[in-house]
Write a structure and sequence with these properties.
mainly alpha, about 0% strand, disordered N terminus, about 220 residues, globular
Length: about 220
């Protein structure tokens, strides 16, 4: 009941934000991105995440909420699930593996929300992007504009985050090329986005992944 009351409270607060026509995704994320108390962040993140997801389903045509939901899932997967799993002792292998698969699940939720965001903007975007047909992939990528860069960043980060945790998953491997293509297109459109965040992801992948998986120093 206490958790339910917290969710309702956060939903009401978020509704106030979304009642303003000038609301931007970045302003909604500011309280989350700017919080320096890691314990507070850890306590509030799951509740905030589900509250935003409720808003998403209540207002599926609101584009900023798509991006916000996707980004929160990626951040939660990375900072609050995968990071903790990486710090576990090797003797806790089973628990560590379980938590990494949980992180993968959240990355994939972020990926799916990102794809949903683009499908609402551009017809057949995800179908073309994931078709494995170079011409159709380029057709999808050419539709991206500068204002799409933040959502493209989260899409690529979600894809590669999930892949990094389970590189032998055939479905993950087949999507790596598309994720890289999205990030490279985003870097082309806005190379300085978020102080070089796109380049951070690309460099980390190309430098760390085996050549057969797309790595290229």
């Amino acid at each position: 009941m206490k958790i339910f009351n917290k969710i309702i409270f956060i939903v009401l607060i978020c509704c106030v934000f979304f009642s303003c026509a000038s609301t931007k995704t970045n302003s909604l994320m500011a309280p989350v991105m700017g919080e320096t108390d890691s314990i507070l962040m850890g306590d509030m993140m799951p509740v905030a995440l589900k509250a935003v997801e409720i808003l998403h389903h209540a207002s599926p045509k609101t584009k900023p909420i798509h991006e916000l939901t996707a980004s929160l899932y990626v951040m939660y997967a990375n900072a609050f699930v995968q990071h903790k799993a990486d710090l576990m002792e090797s003797s806790d292998f089973e628990l560590q593996y379980s938590e990494k698969m949980r992180a993968k699940m959240h990355y994939l939720r972020g990926r799916d929300y990102s794809l949903s965001y683009f499908d609402r903007k551009y017809k057949n975007f995800s179908k073309n992007l994931l078709s494995k047909d170079p011409e159709l992939e380029q057709l999808a990528l050419k539709k991206l504009k500068v204002k799409d860069v933040p959502a493209a960043y989260w899409l690529g980060a979600a894809f590669l985050g999930a892949f990094s945790l389970d590189p032998l998953d055939v479905d993950m491997l087949s999507g790596v090329g598309s994720a890289l293509a999205v990030l490279e297109r985003a870097a082309e459109l806005d190379p300085s986005y978020n102080n070089g965040a796109i380049w951070d992801v690309l460099v980390a992948f190309y430098a760390g992944a085996p050549a057969e998986f797309g790595g290229n120093v």
